[in-house]
């Protein structure tokens, strides 16, 4: 199996190098990831400047590794359109440094990297870690991949996987989890005056949202690996009947 890896934390981040070690047991690994930190860039692509792509020596054994000056979606695009001679069997984005819960999937470069793979009809998974210990990652990721490749038959769906960082003895298993309304991103800003008619706004790092029971946040905090299938169709079909074009003319 040929596996393409990307992320939003940078090509040499701890998460993606650990991921490369884990999945090298089940397939040939190619890395195409941002040259620097790109967290929370969502699904942005580079359209007003050229991308700079460099083949790099990698700290763990992989087939090839590329540093890309753009965002995760750029990395996936350039890899699938040019760097790889054939389409990979699987694309994995991560392992992200921090979870991607609830509404954060909209902002996440990690999740967007997987969605970009889905756009190219490559089976794609996003992995994120709620903490610093990779013990549960080494224990579960290849099992999740095997299950995904066997059971995910929908080409328009990715799996968003959040992994706890608890000790193995507190790990409870793998479960399906609905998205919560939780956000880990700092949506509150403190204002400082710089000079007349100019201000600085500094983000205050505090979580917002409610910890709803039995959602992705709650289940990971309990010690479960939480899998949430995601798709990209934003259309609200329930409102189609309420829109009358004739009445607007």
Automatic annotation (TrEMBL):
Keyword annotations of the record:
Cytoplasm, Hydrolase, Metal-binding, Nucleotide-binding
Q: Where is the Survival protein SurE-like phosphatase/nucleotidase domain?
A: 3-179
Task: Report whether Oxidoreductase shows up as a keyword of the record.
Answer: no
Could you tell me where this protein is found in the cell? Cytoplasm
Can you name the source organism? Anaerocolumna sedimenticola
**Highest taxon, organism lineage:** Bacteria
Per the record, a Pfam family? Answer: SurE
Question: One GO cellular component from the entry?
Answer: cytoplasm
Q: Which reaction does it catalyse?
A: a ribonucleoside 5'-phosphate + H2O = a ribonucleoside + phosphate
Enzyme class (EC, first level): hydrolase
Q: How is the cofactor bound?
A: Binds 1 divalent metal cation per subunit.
What GO molecular function terms would the record report?
Answer: 3'-nucleotidase activity; 5'-nucleotidase activity; exopolyphosphatase activity; metal ion binding; nucleotide binding
Its predominant location is: cytoplasm
- Where, by residue number, does a divalent metal cation bind? 8-9, 39, 96
Cofactors required? a divalent metal cation
The EC number on file is 3.1.3.5
- Tell me the protein family, please: Belongs to the SurE nucleotidase family.
**Job description of the protein:** Nucleotidase that shows phosphatase activity on nucleoside 5'-monophosphates.
Q: What is the protein name for this chain?
A: 5'-nucleotidase SurE
